[in-house]
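Give me structure tokens for this 273-residue protein.
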Amino acid sequence: MPLSTFNMPHAIIKTNKNLNDIECVNIFRYKNKGILPLDEFRCFLDVYKKQDLLIIKLNKATRSIITDKLKDAILDTAEKIADNLNCEIVSHNLEHTNTNIEFCDCYESVYPQKILTYNKESINNLEIGFGRGEFLINLAKQKPEEFFLGIEVYGKDFLFALNRCCNEKLNNVKLLNYDCNHVIDLFDNNSFDNIYVNFPEPWFKLYRIKHSIFNKITFQKITDKLKQNGFLHIVTDNYPFAVYSAIIGQFFSLKPLGKFFIETIDDFDTLYA
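Here you go.
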């Protein structure tokens, strides 16, 4: 097995010993696999054997923001395990990339309690998939009397937007690094005046509808989060997706006031546009 197989932060130890031989850290074991919590970073490490290699890898599902501090914690844990097993680390990708952040009040966390801590009464607007945050942050600056919550699954984009929010000291924005399909249930119904979804499916294919953010299950969940007179704003440059969104919007009886379901906009304030 090539040692460069993994993209997630990881370390690989060469050893003939198994997880049950590790005594220096608290691993939750199941057969020959294990989960190791990093409480400070609210994430987990996967620990498992492949042939004569012990892999210690960041668990992708916890959606951790990968910083140099997190990499140091993974490497420290791997070194402790290697010393305990009297073995050595043969490969890792935990070199520093000058990625650091001081989390401010804009950062909204889900794990480990799966509870959102923001004041639900104060949030007016939600953007799903905010990317680097151009649209969300600019709108928040234009409307300081309103509050905004953003969801973004990709860590690098999320980190960029969070840094900007913290540097500009915005106090009406909360950002969440997670998959909308897995976190939408944490919001109460009738919560938002506006939900924005900008360029969600740049390579939309009908056969992949079940993976789309607007499949028949997630679309219903998203629209349920709108207040009675709330608006769902969708922007796309993909015509099949526009038509699909219009059809599914009609199916759920969404009727924009005085507008067609599809309209042309020449300019839009996002990096993708």
